[in-house]
Amino acid sequence: MVNRDSRLCALCGVRPATTNEHVPSKSLFKSPRPNDLITVPACSPCNSGTQPDDDYFRKTLALIDEPTPSDALELIRPAVTRSFQRPREQGLRAHFESRLKFAPLSGRTVHQPVIQLDSKRLNNVVAKHAAGVFYEVTRRPLSPTYGTFVLPVRWFEKIIPEDRPHWQQVVWMALRGYRRQVGDGSVFKFAINVAVDDPNGFVAVLLYFENFAYAIRSFARQTHASAT
User: Fold this and answer.
1) CA-based, 20 to 30 A from 164: which of 21, 35, 44, 60?
2) CA atoms within 13 A on the CB side of 161
3) Each residue's pLDDT tens digit, 145-157
4) CA separation for the pair 139, 132 (Å, rounded)
């Protein structure tokens, strides 16, 4: 079993760690930040290389109009709004504007502007957080021979009916495992259950701002050669 002293990257499980990574990014938390933020050892590529996606994740959640607004998300929205006025943010602002579409409002003929989210990019950030949570709980990185499937819970009704029981089971099993929140839990909390017969098998649920829930499960890459 690999422990923290080995300083192997918790996110890729391959390269030696040279720094630490917050899971999730500390930018999701309004200052003063809680004193129980999760940090895991990380290599430079996994740390600095994923910062643009961390920023995209934060800004995307801040742009979503939730049915029940999160007070914690309201606290960072002004900073996100101001950031779009900076010259270096014009590329990201143009990205969001290019993905602006119109959709029916609550099924009515009235249409409202909505942003078509880059779900793959968001899921990649959640997968990184899941790897970090796995390390925090087990004190070892997920094997690089394993990957993770990520599915937003809000998509459960959109997937084919045959797959729904599986993902409902993922959530149910995760909630029976270890649970933790960061700070008061209004920004981030998770539940994870690691398999008894597979040290790299796990299911998890990650919840952001009380409104954005993701279900995650690991898989052995050699049995899913076409998965990414």
Assistant:
1) 60
2) 0
3) 999 999 999 999 8
4) 10
